[in-house]
Amino acid sequence: MMFETFAEHYGIQGVVGVRAITYYGGRFFSPVYGYCEWHRETQTAKCAIGCGMVPGDRHQGCGFHSFWAPPDAKRFVEQIRATEACLVLIECFGRVVMHELGLRAEKARIVAVLDWDPRTIFASWRAPSQFSNLAIPMEAVRVFQVPLIDEHAAEDLIASQREMALAN
After folding, report:
1. Contact at 8 Å (CB) between 146 and 131?
2. From 7's CA, which of 71, 124, 125, 160 has a CA 20 to 30 Å away?
3. What distance in Å separates the CA atoms of residue 104 and residue 146, rounded to the nearest whole number?
4. For residues 129 and 123, what is the distance between their CA atoms, to the nearest angstrom?
5. Rg (CA), the chain
6. Left if phi > 0, otherwise alpha if psi is -120 to 50, otherwise beta: which for 25?
7. Secondary structure class of 113 (helix, strand, coil)
């Protein structure tokens, strides 16, 4: 009997990274670029300053950003004080620019939600009553129809897809 990997089971072929998305008004957005609402299907990035090629070489702002390591994504959530956020894995397509901490991509889709609650890093923040424990990540699981996975599964998938991309 052959063991089916996570990537094979979910049809993941592109490179994968972890990023934050925020929950506001019943919808999910990129925490820095509020004009970017996340949907279930594959999305195409647009540059805020008009680069013709995304991700462009003119600046570091365009493309869907993600990190290789979940702790780096958690630090980002803490730095921007994204109290109503969750971490997701995105599969990246099209033009992909890889760097030391992660990547930027022309196209992306959410393939999983990490089992992590950002409120653990904001000790003084009190959650609204409708969101307790893992409510925001569980809402992302429901909206995007993807699995909830632990950090180790995320790290394994990121590493295997990154190795495959570097080999090509």
Report:
1. no
2. 71
3. 22
4. 16
5. 16
6. left
7. strand
Task: Please report, for the chain, the start and end positions of each structural domain, with discontinuous segments joined by +.
Answer: 14-167
Helix and strand numbers (H, E) in the chain are 4, 7
Q: Is the dihedral of CA 28, 18, 15, 160 positive or negative?
A: negative
CB proximity list for 23: less than 8 A, separation 6 or greater: 84, 85, 86, 136, 139, 140
Cβ atoms 90, 15 nearer than 8 A: no
Sequence-distant (6+) residues with CB within 8 A of 154 are 18, 70, 89, 112, 114
- Please give the model's pTM, rounded to 2 decimal places: 0.86
In angstroms, the CA 87 to CA 115 distance is 8
Asked if 80 contacts 32 with a C-beta cutoff of 8 angstroms, the reply is yes
pLDDT in tens, 71-104: 999 999 888 887 788 999 999 999 998 989 999 9
| Burial class of residue 110 (count of CB atoms within 10 Å of its CB; 0-12, 13-18, 19+) | buried
Classify residue 153 as exposed, middle or buried by CB count within 10 Å of its CB (0-12, 13-18, 19+): middle
